[in-house]
Amino acid sequence: MAPPVARDAAAVPVVDRTWAEEWVTACCGACGREGHWPQPELDCTCGAVLRIPVAVSADGAASDGATADEASEDGASTDGAAQAGHPGDAGPPGDGEAAPGHDRAAPAPALPSHIPLPRTAPRPRPAFRPVTIRDARDAVTVAALYLRWLGYLNTRSAARRPPSGSRITARGMLAQVEPALRPTTLRDVECLWLTAMTEAGDTPVACAFFSLAGYTSGARTRADTLGVPLFTMDATGTPQPINSAADELVATGA
After folding, report:
1. In sequence order, what DSSP letters do the residues of the chain get, joined into one string?
2. What are 110-122's pLDDT values in tens digits?
3. What is the C-alpha separation between 46 and 28, in angstroms, rounded?
4. How many domains does the chain have?
5. What is the CATH number of the domain that holds 172?
6. What backbone phi and psi angles, to 5 degrees, belong to 195?
7. How many angstroms separate the most distant Cα atoms in the chain?
8. Using CA atoms, how far apart are residues 49 and 132, in angstroms rounded to an integer?
9. What is the pTM of this model?
10. Are the C-beta atoms of 242 and 219 separated by less than 8 Å?
11. How does pLDDT run across 90-147, given as a tens digit for each residue?
């Protein structure tokens, strides 16, 4: 389902992201269950992102194409549908009816450790074709192919090799591939980020990390702070994003 757009409200630019602004509490029209849905957004190739307002009722649930004021004025039709015995038109099921004049409190959102960023219109892109990983060279090949799939063309080996693993460079991107059977550490993430900042010059350079053995908790925390996309790889050869920065990179591409 999709929350209805509030046509009488203006879209606002997204400057700082917060939990409260990225999610709305909506009610499913089929089963009546309330849940958290991504706030619709519209992004442009220039980098601007607009948050599109949606129509929600007073209790936080999305209305059926009307604003909260219009829903209150048309409350009689909702009551009539409930009396007619249509389960899809009635409110969400609960242990009992709420007392008149008292709004039912919406459930407190449970903050997961990894929240994919909402994208209303992801750019069309063919499915990534994985390559089986048998050794360290295959891991580097998969990472290079994945970067090209994201739109970073002309990938090549970086001139400066890291203490461990390999680095791939492309226009606007510096990626590190760690094929070792040890989790990537905080120091590894920081070194990649610092190298990308050093080589940036006048043109911004993004960075991304690909690891076969995953990441330590400290590495994941620091990557979230620095905005470094983290990907894991397995023998199937399909990189998987594991933090919000990686989700955003997959959604937007180069």
Report:
1. --PPB-TTS--EE--S--HHHHEEEEE-TTT--EEEEEPPEEE-TTS-EEEPPB-B-TTSPBPSSS-HHHHHHTHHHHHHHHHTT-TTTS----SSPPPTT-PPPPPPPP--S--PPP-SSPPP-PPP------SHHHHHHHHHHHHHHHT--S-EE-SSPPSSSEEEEETTEEEEEE-SSSPBPHHHHHHHHHHHHHHHTTS--EEEEEESS-B-HHHHHHHHHHT--EEE--TT---EE-SHHHHHHHHH--
2. 555 555 555 544 5
3. 34
4. 2
5. 3.40.1350
6. -65, -40
7. 73
8. 37
9. 0.52
10. no
11. 444 444 454 455 455 556 555 555 555 555 445 567 889 999 999 999 999 999 999 9
Q: Using CA atoms, how far apart are residues 132 and 43, in angstroms rounded to an integer?
A: 34
Q: State how far the Cα of 120 lies from the Cα of 11, in Å rounded to an integer.
A: 14
What range does the domain containing 188 cover?
Answer: 136-252
Could you tell me if residue 152 is inside a domain? yes
Confidence check: pLDDT of 69 > 60: no
Q: Are residues 111 and 212 in the same domain?
A: no
Q: What's the residue count for the chain?
A: 254
- Tokens 């203490």 correspond to 163
Decide if 129 is inside a domain.
no
Between CA 138 and CA 147, with CA 141 as vertex, the angle to 5 degrees is 145
Instruction: Write the CB contacts of 70 (distance below 8 Å, at least 6 apart in sequence).
Output: 63
Backbone φ and ψ for 249, nearest 5 degrees, come out as -65, -40
Q: How far apart are CA 83 and CA 139, in angstroms?
A: 62
